[in-house]
Amino acid sequence: MIRLGVIGMGERVSWVINQEMRAVAPDLKVVGVVDPDEAGARSRLPEPDSAEAIFYETLDEMVRSAKPDALVIGTRCNLHTPYAIQAARCDLPLFLEKPVSNSMEQAISLEKAFENSRCTVVVSFPLRVSPLCVMARTLLEEGAVGHPNHVMAFNYVPYGTIYFDSFYRIYPVTQGLFLQKATHDFDYLSYLMGERIVRVGAMASLGQVFGGSKPSGLVCSQCDEELICAESPRNRLVNGSGRAGSDHPCVFGEDIGTPETGMNEDSSSALLEFAGGAHGVYTQVFYSRRDAGARGATISGYEGTLTFDWYQNHIKRIRHHQPFSDTIRAGGTGSHMGGDSELARDFIGVIRGTRVSRTPIESGIQSAYTCLAAKESAETGQFVTVRQVGG
Predict the structure, then answer these.
(1) Taking a C-beta distance cutoff of 8 angstroms, is the pair 319, 106 a contact?
(2) Angle subtended by helix axes 104-113 and 80-88, to nearest 10
(3) Mean pLDDT on 245-262
(4) What is the rounded distance in angstroms from the CA atom of residue 364 to the CA atom of residue 126?
(5) Percent of the chain beyond pLDDT 90?
(6) Quick one: which of 125, 126, 183, 136 has its CA closest to 309?
């Protein structure tokens, strides 16, 4: 039996534990939890864990008393680093949600905490380990494009309203959507190109679509525009245009923030320079809907071009100097395009001593450094050199 200690039993981490990790290790048992919302956390645990799990005030108390075999951190984003620093002292396998840090101060502190730690970390970067991305990397290693000289990556998010109608709208927690969303993408782009990102120039559009002058605390059921607003649960359901069903905070409310006080962006883009001299561009858009959803990249070199899209679930390879082109279709999908299943296998394997982490703490910190550079660049209008782990 694997005994698991959980810090922050939210929806995301409960899904990963209950659906993905238990599929790999049916004998997994949540024995301890640190979460101020005990009722909510228990409701996300299946029996008998829901009744038997013991709640603790601190991580240290849980480790001493519950004696877990491994830890999972799934708190709000601003708490990932403080708890991970504590976990670094425990020398237990750790599954850590992204972003691992939401400020430069946090990221530097986290790097220092793990310099001499024996704690093996699996960072929640499912895109890097998804079958489609791994296949794309394999093709690149086999010379499908020659030397990768350029990459163009895109993320048109069809569920982007979650960053404006849920707790993700709280800017002090998210610190913007480079950290919240692009942390996935900067990580897999470095993996694909085989090089770290060393310099970033970025831009962001804020308050052009979401945010506005609707009063703070307004929810759809209290709004006199509910019948005509495209964002009401009723109209989202009719149009198939987003998360429907439940009442939610207004996406045009003043409590989302302003460009001056801080708010999540409607869209943002970054120009990326890689260590070997290649460059690329990344764009993310959060007001896309329905069939506009797309996420993937085009990598090109002198010998060819490789394009993949997780929503289309295929890879296209074009040979530049031969009259042949291929399409490789991936079988199956799953949560995060199959990446969550791979992360679960990695984490259970790390616990059992049969696998190594493909998304170690260094990858999480390096992605955070890149995201922070992009955030700084968008705010200042200047190119920013990316801090390097170990540098």
Answers:
(1) no
(2) 10
(3) 93
(4) 12
(5) 95
(6) 136
Tell me which DSSP letter residue 29 carries: E
Q: Which residue has the tokens 């959060």?
A: 286
Cα dihedral across residues 98, 103, 107, 112: positive or negative: negative
| Angle, CA 139 vertex, CA 371 and CA 359 arms, to 5° | 40
| CB 172, CB 106: distance < 8 Å | no
- For the record, the structure tokens of 319 come out as 């040979």
User: For the chain, what are the domain ranges?
Assistant: 3-125+344-359, 128-206+260-335+366-385, 220-256
The domain 128-206+260-335+366-385: what is its CATH number? 3.30.360.10
CA distance 359 to 345: 12
Q: What is the mean pLDDT of residues 132-138?
A: 96
pLDDT tens track for 164-223: 999 999 999 999 999 999 999 999 999 999 999 999 999 999 999 999 999 999 999 999
Q: What is the CA radius of gyration of the chain?
A: 21
pLDDT of residue 331: 74
CATH code for the structural domain at 3-125+344-359 = 3.40.50.720
The CA distance from 92 to 87, in Å, is 7
Q: What is the pLDDT of residues 7-38, one digit of tens each?
A: 999 999 999 999 999 999 999 999 999 999 99
